[in-house]
Design a protein that fits this description.
Elements: E1 7-12, E2 26-29, H1 32-38, H2 44-49, H3 53-71, E3 78-82, E4 88-95, E5 98-104, H4 116-129, E6 136-140, E7 146-149, E8 152-156
Parallel strand pairs: 1-3, 5-6, 6-8
Antiparallel strand pairs: 1-2, 3-4, 4-5, 7-8
Length: 160
């Protein structure tokens, strides 16, 4: 299914093999409609506001990043980062600019606390990779672009 682009598999990013990180991959359908159908969600409002709303939105963001990268004839280098203690970054994109940490939040009002995983990732990466951590982003459902702290910006999904 991955070879035919029906699913996207994000493998974990880990800078230091000795650290305790979660190493199980995450699987995303490339078609959010198929995901909702298989989950039994037939109503868009229920899909967005129900218990799977965050996962569905994260799937949409992962898919858009993947499609954008592929359309530029670039092989996507996408990962996720999660520690055994629960700190997480939903998507880590490896680019010519470094490693771009991205959090996805099903919220229209971004807050600085939403960037905690990105800050932890950048701190962890600093120990092993120095300056390879690029600016991080929190993708949200609202319509404003907003700085959330040093090196972290909230971006609306509609602007991607």
């Amino acid at each position: 299914m991955e070879a035919t682009h029906q699913v996207i598999i994000l493998r974990p990013f880990f800078a230091n093999v000795g650290k305790r990180l979660v190493k199980t991959p995450k699987v995303y359908f490339t078609d959010v409609g198929t995901l909702c159908f298989l989950a039994g969600l037939r109503d868009p409002e229920h899909a967005a506001s129900g218990p799977m709303g965050g996962a569905i939105f994260e799937t949409a963001v992962v898919t858009e990043i993947f499609k954008t990268t592929i359309s530029r004839s670039i092989e996507p280098q996408m990962y996720f980062w999660r520690t055994s203690a629960g700190m997480e970054v939903d998507i880590v994109v490896e680019s010519g600019h470094g490693l771009i940490p991205i959090e996805v939040k099903l919220s229209s009002t971004p807050k600085p606390a939403m960037a905690q995983g990105i800050k932890a990732f950048r701190g962890d990466l600093g120990e092993d990779f120095g300056d390879r951590a690029a600016e991080g982003y929190v993708i949200h459902t609202g319509d404003i672009r907003l700085p959330l702290g040093p090196g972290v910006t909230a971006l609306p999904f509609v602007g991607l």
